[in-house]
User: Which sequence fits this backbone?
């Protein structure tokens, strides 16, 4: 299994589904739909949807089954990026190598485009079919909890409040990363599994996998922010340091950060044991995320 | 049936349910949960939840059955107010007689509190039980469509883009009002009906009722903005005029606006015919909304 090929193919199929399920730019109000699509099709890595699709496969399902889940987590992720980039939040001018949403459409439309993507992410889940074990009530609960005030949004609040805070601790940073990144990756894996009617044991393994991979993902993001160029990242490098934000390298150093990401990835691999060969793609994804340079 | 008493009692029971289902202010992140609760418990009229509860009763159900729906539409409505009040939108300093959310908690937290209320509104629906005719898939679709990019958010976009526009037409204003207000009132009525397992005919009557009452509600809001004091309204009066916004009085005059609101209310009454006496409370609500002075 060539993981780059899988990522490329899954990104393509996810983009095709998103294009089908998100209102076209010509539909009124045009500015809003164009703005939603501007950020949604800005060439993200589509990591979260890939995790959903691969999780379905690990449980004996197909990519196609988990497509609504994949689109839901990608819309959710894109909304969080648009709102995080706003001047009243992280105030970022570039994302994925392009001007951020509010730089192109203005702050008002950017807030509303984020709101609309958050709303449509729940609608995406309705394209899925209920399984023997899971209904739409389970799907919606999964997404709402991961993206709600105790998880994703809690992470952004802590991040916002932690800027230039003194007395930073690794525990505080972990609190943020668990919520800002792990929660949605864990949710991506679980929703993918649910689409394939995962057994309770499989679902619990996917939870563990998503959690560890999510944490590793964010540690690596911190490392890349310090070691890579703005050009390579497609977003302003060194931004965290400049804003006085806590990062793993700033707290424990680059070397220890790398070792921590490796440890988390090994633990993610270990959590996949019960799937046997069916977890080949998930395994490949974890390895890819550890080795990425942007 | 004393409608003021019903409104008072239903507001009380809705607030009790909201208090139970929305994380307490002491739960981390405290600022976020306090901010969500600040706007949620700022003493709104609770019109939308009352419509949900009364719609359930009209279909032979109880208030209790529709409580999750009532809380969902109130959380949704509150999120839309917080975001609408932001400096990059309507830039309002007062709402319900109190400083707006961003004035108290800052813009970043206000954006996130709105996001969290939008997210939790979908979670609220999960407290309801599926009925013979309707599942959580139907509940979520109903709320997502009414609050999505073609309805509620479309209205806010059109409102934002219409400020100081020339060549205003009644049709444009109706487009905004249908989306900013009617869509959610229609949804409140329908969700309430669904909780009571409404027949297709009942659901269609509730749609018509919610649509007409929503439109009347907004026409009256326009009238009050021009005729009432800031003190009485609890929000800055005359704000629409100042911002160069279209309103019914500015387009067709106060007198014709009043007549239009009356006509819509009469049509709303008419749509309730099939419910007989069971629609007494809905009838009372429509009358109350027409006669209100704030």
Assistant:
């Amino acid at each position: 299994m060539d993981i780059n090929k899988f990522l490329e193919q899954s990104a393509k199929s996810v983009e095709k589904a998103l294009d089908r399920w998100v209102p076209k730019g010509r539909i009124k109000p045009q500015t809003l739909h164009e703005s939603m699509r501007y950020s949604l099709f800005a060439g993200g890595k589509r990591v979260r949807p890939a995790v959903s699709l691969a999780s379905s496969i690990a449980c004996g399902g197909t990519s196609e089954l988990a497509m609504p889940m994949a689109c839901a987590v990608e819309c959710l992720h894109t909304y969080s990026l648009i709102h995080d980039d706003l001047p009243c939040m992280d105030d970022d001018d570039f994302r994925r190598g392009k001007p951020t949403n509010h730089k192109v459409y203005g702050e008002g439309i950017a807030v509303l485009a984020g709101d609309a993507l958050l709303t449509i992410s729940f609608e995406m889940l309705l394209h899925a079919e209920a399984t023997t074990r899971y209904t739409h009530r389970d799907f919606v609960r999964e997404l709402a909890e991961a993206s709600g005030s105790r998880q994703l949004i809690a992470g952004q609040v802590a991040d916002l409040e932690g800027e230039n805070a003194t007395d930073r601790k690794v525990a505080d940073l972990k609190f943020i990363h668990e919520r800002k990144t792990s929660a949605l990756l864990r949710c991506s894996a679980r929703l993918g599994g649910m689409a394939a009617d995962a057994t309770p044991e499989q679902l619990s393994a996917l939870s563990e996998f998503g959690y560890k991979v999510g944490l590793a993902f964010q540690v690596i993001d911190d490392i890349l922010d310090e070691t890579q160029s703005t050009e390579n990242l497609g977003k302003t490098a060194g931004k965290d340091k400049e804003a006085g934000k806590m990062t793993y390298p700033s707290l424990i150093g680059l070397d220890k950060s790398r070792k921590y990401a490796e440890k988390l990835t090994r633990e993610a691999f270990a959590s996949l044991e019960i799937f046997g060969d069916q977890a080949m793609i998930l395994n490949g994804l974890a390895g890819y995320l550890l080795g990425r340079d942007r």
Summary: Chain B has one domain: 3-289. Chain B touches chain A through 48 residues (CB under 8 Å). Chain B has a mean pLDDT of 94.
